[in-house]
Predict the 3D structure of the following.
Amino acid sequence: MNDEPAGPGKGDSASLSSLQRWMQAVIMHPDGVMAGTESEGARQHLDVSPGQLETVVGRSRNLTSDERLEIYHNAYFSRLLECLRNIYPMVAKTLGEEAFDALAIGYLHSYPSGSYTLDRLGDNFARYLHESRPDLDDSGEPTETWPDFLIDLARLEWNIGEVFDGPGVEGQTTLGAEQLLGMDANRWPEVRLTPAPCLRLLSFRFPVNDYFTSLRDVDEDAEPPALPGPAESWLALSRRDFVVRRHALERAQHRLLTSLAGGQTIGAAIGELASTTSVDFDRLAEELRDWFHTWTAAGFFTGLGDPL
């Protein structure tokens, strides 16, 4: 039996908990195993220099200690890249796998995973796209529009994921058109509507919903459609039967729904819309019934709130 001196992480010199936390800090470091070993996060658990790795992780017949750790490091980041591709499939399809992975690695360097769940991994991706845009001139002003389009597309995909994973109306009764439109007309101005928890109202600088639909229908090996030019668009997201639905909106519809979802009465929301936009009030009065029919059918509201 060979005698072997106990180094860091062996015998009584380090607890299992310290060893586990050291391994986590080393493997999860975005700059690799050597940088992870030298990081403060690792050294607060085990003060081990790169040259002492074998005192913690033994070498195998074919691999050194750092090579064995690199396998875990690479597997960890491969899993993170896979997760980001699943969160942002249309951004990945637009950029192509190689370009998206390069962008994602930069994102993971700037915003390393810090949550117990990978569900939050993509929280700051749209922010990173803005922070890392490559088209800024010497004064810091953007010179291209395509980074803005990618930011909008990332925002759409993130919100779709949030609606899918969040609370919905499955198993509940939502507000029906008959219940709403059958009310005494004198009550309408004072009534508030309770928005469904899965309702999201979004505005974009580009027609990202149309692009999303076109790209989704493109074969995997085909070229993605050309990026559209700037054009404001508005969208409502909801969920029915565990399927996220995308509803294109007009500007006036988006403004009215935003006011209603924010707690305004129907009368106040309509009055604000009429006073702050150029919408024709007579035409609006004719369209409101159709709008509310569509919105109640989509399950945008769960019921009537208390009058103010």
